């Protein structure tokens, strides 16, 4: 295409071959091959002088548009991957969009004002699919969702609490409460599509104590709503978005009850410079 446009502009095979740093036979062969592929001539020839015919004029318009589009695409890709002007693509859990993600974006843009963020939020299944199919380079999620082919970098660890309604018998509990005290209480659990479920299950496995789930909710906000309504107790992180009026947060007496949230990426996949720079930002932070 570039050979064709050069010949079309110069209207002279020898001059075009010099401009392209090609031998004239090589250029002539390339133009002839193009015409053979199209099935019609693009030039009227008079010795070494050539002139675009009406087919060539029409085709040149389309080729110039295509080459401009390709050049724009190259520029976009370069800007996308540039650590100072590129795009950081992240998928993350819904509950993290209340506080953590906005703060991270704000802090990062203070240092890199020209960087753009491409964000996707949803349930664990949604964001995991978005991440695994390559639609995002990074994912901010619960540690238990990371697997062997993922790299993991901890962002924060959030304490977990026993949560009851203000009308519950434990509402006046001021000291840490053992999970064994919840035996027989209706427990509001989480469905598999919620990232925190795996963390809670792991913690329970380590204590050897289990609670019978009365309700399984889709997300943490729904769990908080059920507790507020007096439909049971649960275990939640005290994060923005969950601190509803009418809830009481009681520290857990057993050790190790915390929710680890971090950044993960695929070690078997190319990461643009913008994403790599964001990882380093999290590491230093």
TrEMBL record:
Q: What is this protein called?
A: LysR family transcriptional regulator
Q: Which residues form the HTH lysR-type domain?
A: 1-53
Mind telling me which PANTHER family this protein's record contains?
HTH-TYPE TRANSCRIPTIONAL REGULATOR BSDA, HTH-TYPE TRANSCRIPTIONAL REGULATOR YBHD
Say which domain of life the source belongs to.
Bacteria
Matching entries from Gene3D superfamilies are given as: 3.40.190.290, Winged helix-like DNA-binding domain superfamily/Winged helix DNA-binding domain
Answer yes or no on keyword Repeat: no
Spell out the InterPro entries in the cross-references.
HTH-type_LysR_regulators, LysR_HTH_N, LysR_subst-bd, WH-like_DNA-bd_sf, WH_DNA-bd_sf
